[in-house]
Specification:
heterotrimer, A alpha+beta, B alpha/beta, C alpha/beta, A: alpha+beta, OB fold (Dihydrolipoamide Acetyltransferase, E2P), 3-stranded antiparallel beta sheet, 37% strand, globular, B: alpha/beta, Aspartate Aminotransferase, domain 1, Aspartate Aminotransferase, domain 2, 2 domains, 7-stranded mixed beta sheet, 4-stranded antiparallel beta sheet, 13 helices, 14% strand
């Protein structure tokens, strides 16, 4: 069973073995409004925690997706290129952005659980 | 002052509502020692008539190209602009509106921009075009930076036969933005070897069509060489009317086309304002700078137009924007669109044929003059002559004194290349009558004797 | 006429707002005329609105590269073309029709004398590369514009060639970079307040600088403290707008300039709001090193639906020698354009390079100097005062119904409100703006500056009479009241009385259609 983690930048990570599937949360897609474009990374790119990996755009805003942890891009969800609306329809499901190979598993410990994340959102409103 | 509606009575009533005694109190945040208590040292207000008199005297101190035979080109061309164009662009609704940020009350500007973009794609043979750039030169520099973003490389190869001002501009921006710029030596006889310069670091190769000296060459081999090295072909067009008669850059494999649109709808204006065209492939649209207009529907399902894909732009993306451009050349783009709509396909074709024919006639009679060598075999409405027995600059100045603007001495644009100092670039358009051409040839003969 | 009928699904949220109206058979509504694209008005490719004499008979010399096939441009006569664009024009709002209070954009009256003068043959029909001896009048006019700009700004030199404000920013920042390069400084950070125009960070990044954002203080300005804290030996420049985008004069500007200079950095001033202070205070006296001037804002050259503009840059003595090519030099009675590095070096200059072909926006120079001559030093000062007075009059008349983000205080030429007054209404700044459209006004600038939530930036300019402002105030007060207590339809369905209702920008961005395509051809192939 995959383990879920959440970042303060509103990304979720679903971890299975040494692979993390990363996307933006339901809350984040709602804040963004209608997503019109997603620009993903390239397979094989290395990222450090906090580096910009992808861009998600609504009509009037562009937001960076930061890598929550260090990692190597294993897979990119190319469906989002042709169907960015999927982010609004199924943010935490089919609309994942990319899969990362986890390099430093201990980085996961500073991320939040779903309960903590929900508390975090409630407080920041 | 005729432009200011407030009366002193109004001002007093307004100050009272605001709760201050004097307008200077509204400037209280200005450091007192910097606040100007007196008027700056400039003349006082003038009536409309007085201003007109003064400006007339400036205007009268130059020799306008439409008052004498003029064969000056090199990026800006003397064409006839129909009266309809100037009337329409002076309509209040076009002239005095802002960028169409509120689309419901800007459909006029937006639809015209959509037509403009479509016309530009038709002329250039490309898939998309933006809503205009400042001019051809800045569009070319933006095309280069766009190519660098697309290829993620930063070595630019610039043809020596690109307009020297364009080259200088690309060099300036490349220098300060950390790109490498390899500029080739000008080749006025039109035999430039470009392909061998392309390597695996090359982002793009920039070629002018027709080139600065007027030559026309097939760009397809350059395009395929560039593409096989993973580089892009940027084609620069400074005489857009040429595309009425010539194959489009897109059909020869161009990846980005940057052009000066002045020849259609816009006057000489001593070099500005003009209108830059920028066209590319749809797959590169997110790397494109500048505003883009797109089609959509309104709440009642009717077709309408909006500015779109604006997340590329500075007002949203700030330091990550594709460019810093904000204001473009809206009204000049409108003039372009109206003039081209008036021309239509057959008008444009006819216009370019007349330009070409006039240039051929002029070139042929010049070739017969002793002391003149025409360097071009294939050309559109501009060609280069070599003056073999006199100083080219002196020839230009002497003819100007005889009220003939005979062309541009290459030395003005390439002052550090003495090997080019005997060249003059000559343009002929539909405005140059047979009599003007004969006058030119006669005087040139006379001067060279 | 065939309107391209390939349509998109109407998003459900928009479909709800559909109001059935009395439809006509033609689709027109009285003076409101529907108009297709020019490509849909004719499929005759052999007609033209311009008569051109036949070319002389000669063989083409195009190197075998003659175009074959159709370009696709439709053929229309002159009256058809005229009517098409007149019809389009009527779908635009314009300053000549009414108040256009776009903050930061300065939509002031565009005198028609300026248009007339710009079309004089001695300005409009001269070529930038004809011999300089034949364009002395034009060069003299440019010289005059330069001297006026220097007098008004108190700076020591001016580069006329930049084509618009952002291009001027680029010019000024490149001059700063050139000066640092000449001193072998490798400073790589530029400080930009978060309230700045997007062009500022974009320009700095464009030429390789890293942007460090300065916070806006509780009073809507940049504090000396914040600048001090951000300054270091890595900082190349600060880019500050004054008056700033919140409509406020930066009160600590002189101290900030001193601090910036002490740290070895330069002070770039975004001159977009110079129109508030012309004749009242000179940027050169405040310690500015470089500033662009939007001739299309401050000096009333028309905005033209998005340009052209012009962005001359004034430079302090320390940057003057880096000004780009070309520049004008006086040699006895003769004015001369210096167009290349060789000559400039002999002249003791070190130009940063070239930013455009030719010499700049002559057409805009003519209009701007005509404006300056008309106003004179007295009229320009009065214009600044009236602009500031009008903005403060709006502030004083609206402060009890709209909300101000930084408290009620004197503003310059524009007044900033936020969306606090809409808090419990479910309405947004956008809804409020769209309702203004139905009332016959162009909305103010909305959602800018970014530092203020739901920002509404109102710049009335000096061109409005008190009566106009009173009418505007009455309307805004009524709208504000209605927003708080009335039914929301007026806002969420707005605009209704416009050629188009709200447009679906989401689909426009998701599935971009950026040019017209001849669908008939596709159909024919399918047949």
């Amino acid at each position: 069973m995959a383990q879920e983690y959440f970042s303060k930048d509103h990304e979720y990570l679903r971890v299975s073995g040494d692979t993390a599937t990363v996307g933006i949360t339901l809350h984040a897609q709602k804040e963004l409004g209608d997503v019109v474009f997603v620009e993903g990374p390239e397979i094989g790119q290395h990222f450090k925690a906090g580096e910009a990996v992808a861009v998600v755009e609504s009509v009037k805003a562009a937001s960076e997706i930061y890598s929550p942890i260090d990692g190597l891009i294993l897979e990119v969800n190319t469906v989002l290129e042709s169907n960015p609306a999927l982010v609004n329809e199924d943010a935490e499901g089919a609309a994942w952005f990319f899969k990362l190979k986890i390099i430093k598993p201990d980085q996961l410990t500073i991320l939040m659980s779903r309960t903590d994340y929900e508390k975090f959102i409630a407080e920041s409103i | 002052m005729r432009y200011l509606p407030l009366t002193s009575q109004d001002r007093n009533a307004m100050l009272e509502r605001i709760g201050v005694n004097d307008v200077s109190e509204l400037f209280a945040d200005v450091p007192p020692d910097k606040y100007l208590r007196d008027l700056v040292n400039l003349p006082l207000a003038k009536s409309e008539f007085e201003v007109q008199q003064e400006m007339n005297s400036f205007a009268g101190a130059s020799m306008p190209a439409n008052s004498l035979p003029s064969f000056v080109g090199c990026g800006i061309y003397h064409h006839h602009v129909p009266a309809t164009v100037d009337h329409l662009i002076q309509r209040s609704e076009f002239l005095t509106s802002y960028t169409p940020y509120q689309p419901e009350i800007s459909q006029g500007t937006l639809q015209a921009l959509f037509e403009f973009q479509t016309q530009v794609t038709m002329l250039t043979g490309m898939e998309i075009a933006n809503a205009s750039m400042y001019d051809g030169s800045t569009a070319s520099a933006e095309a280069v930076l766009m190519a660098n973003r697309i290829t993620k490389r930063n070595k630019v190869i610039v043809s020596g036969n690109l307009h020297p001002h364009y080259r200088e501009l690309i060099k300036t921006l490349a220098h300060y933005s950390g790109a490498k710029c390899a500029t080739l030596v000008p080749n006025p006889i039109g035999h430039e070897e470009l392909i061998q310069e392309i390597d695996d670091d090359t982002s793009c190769i920039v070629v002018q069509f027709p080139d600065f000296y007027g030559h026309i060459r097939d760009l397809a081999p350059i395009a395929s060489a560039a593409h096989s090295a993973g580089a892009l072909l940027v084609v620069v067009v400074t005489e857009i009317i040429a595309l009425g008669l010539l194959q489009s850059p897109g059909s020869m494999g161009a990846d980005i086309v940057a052009a000066e649109g002045q020849s259609i709808g816009n006057g000489l204006n001593f070099g500005g304002p003009h209108v830059g065209l920028l066209a590319a492939h749809l797959r590169h649209v997110r790397h494109m700078p500048g505003r883009i207009c797109g089609e959509t529907l309104d709440a009642e399902g009717r077709r309408g137009f909006v500015l779109t894909l604006s997340t590329r732009e500075q007002h949203i993306r700030r330091e990550k924007a594709t460019s810093n451009i904000c204001t473009n050349s809206g009204l000049c783009a409108l003039a372009f669109t109206i003039h081209l709509s008036l021309l239509g396909q057959c008008g444009l074709k006819r216009l370019s044929e007349v330009n070409h024919a006039n240039a051929i006639t002029l070139a042929d009679s010049m070739a017969e003059i002793e002391g003149v060598e025409v360097l071009n075999r294939a050309f559109f409405n501009e060609f280069t002559i070599r003056i073999t027995n006199k100083d080219a600059n002196d020839v230009v100045e002497t003819l100007a004194k005889r009220r003939i603007l005979c062309g541009v001495p290459v030395s003005r644009l390439e002052p550090d290349k003495p090997e080019l100092s005997d060249l003059i670039i000559v343009a002929a358009t539909e405005t140059n009558t047979a009599i003007e051409c004969e006058t030119y040839v006669d005087h040139l003969k006379d001067v060279l004797q | 006429m065939s309107i391209n009928s390939e349509s998109r699904p109407i998003p459900s949220f928009l479909a709800n707002t559909h109001t059935p109206d009395t439809t006509t058979f033609s689709g027109n509504k009285g003076l409101e005329l529907e108009e297709g694209l020019i490509f849909e008005l004719s499929d005759n490719l052999h007609k033209s609105g311009i008569d051109i004499p036949a070319p002389s008979n000669c063989e083409k010399r195009l190197g075998g590269l003659e175009r074959s096939g159709d370009i696709g441009l439709p053929g229309l006569s002159e009256p058809e073309t005229m009517r098409h664009y007149v019809r389009l024009s009527r779908k635009n709002y314009a300053i000549d029709m009414g108040l256009y209070p776009l903050g930061s954009c300065t939509m002031k009256h565009n005198p028609r004398l300026n248009e007339k003068i710009a079309r004089l043959s001695g300005f409009a029909d001269i070529h930038p590369l004809q011999p300089q001896s034949t364009v002395q009048g034009a060069l003299a006019l440019m010289q005059m514009l330069a001297s006026y700009l220097l007098e008004l700004t108190g700076m020591s030199s001016v580069a006329l060639s930049p084509k618009a404000g952002a291009h001027g920013e680029l010019c000024g920042m490149l001059a700063i970079k050139a000066a640092h390069d000449a001193a072998c400084n490798t400073r790589n950070i530029v400080l930009v307040p978060e309230s700045a125009h997007g062009t500022n960070p974009a320009t700095a990044a464009f030429i390789g600088y890293k942007v460090k954002t300065l916070p806006t203080s509780n009073s809507g300005t940049v504090s000396l403290e914040a600048v001090r804290e951000a300054l270091s030996s890595e900082v190349a420049a600060i880019m500050l707008t004054n008056p700033n985008t919140c409509g406020l004069f930066e009160p600590e500007i002189v101290a900030i300039a001193n601090e910036v200079h002490k740290a070895g950095a330069y002070f770039y001033c975004d001159g977009a709001n110079f129109n508030a202070i012309v004749g009242k205070v000179r940027p050169g006296d405040l310690g500015v090193d470089a500033m662009h001037i939007n001739l299309h804002k401050t000096f009333s050259t028309p905005h033209g639906g998005g340009g052209p503009g012009a962005g001359p840059v004034v430079l302090s003595e320390s940057l003057a020698r880096y000004a780009p090519l070309p520049y004008i030099k006086r040699d006895g009675d003769i004015l001369q354009l210096v167009e290349n590095q060789l000559e400039a070096k002999l002249d003791g200059k070190a130009p940063l390079g070239r930013l455009t072909a030719f010499h700049g926006q002559m057409g805009m120079f003519v209009r701007a100097i005509t404006y300056m001559l008309s106003h004179g030093s007295d009229g320009m000062r009065q214009a600044s005062e009236d602009a500031v007075l009008n903005a403060n009059y709006l502030r004083a008349s609206l402060k009890d119904v709209l909300t101000q983000p930084f408290g009620d205080k004197t503003c310059m030429h524009e007044v900033l409100f936020d969306d606090t007054f809409l808090k419990d209404t479910n309405l947004s700044t956008l809804d409020f703006a769209k309702a203004m459209i139905d009332e016959g006004y162009h909305p103010m600038t909305v959602y800018f500056p970014l530092v203020v939530h739901g920002a509404m930036l109102i710049e009335p300019t000096e061109s409005e009479s008190k009566a106009n402002l009173d009418q505007f105030i009455k309307t805004l007060r009524a709208l504000a009241r209605e927003a708080k207590s009335g039914p929301p339809e007026r806002f969420i369905k707005a605009p209704i009385y416009t050629p188009r209702r709200r447009l679906d920008e989401t689909t426009a961005a998701r599935k971009p259609r950026l040019s017209w395509k001849p669908t008939s051809k596709v159909d024919k192939v399918a047949e």
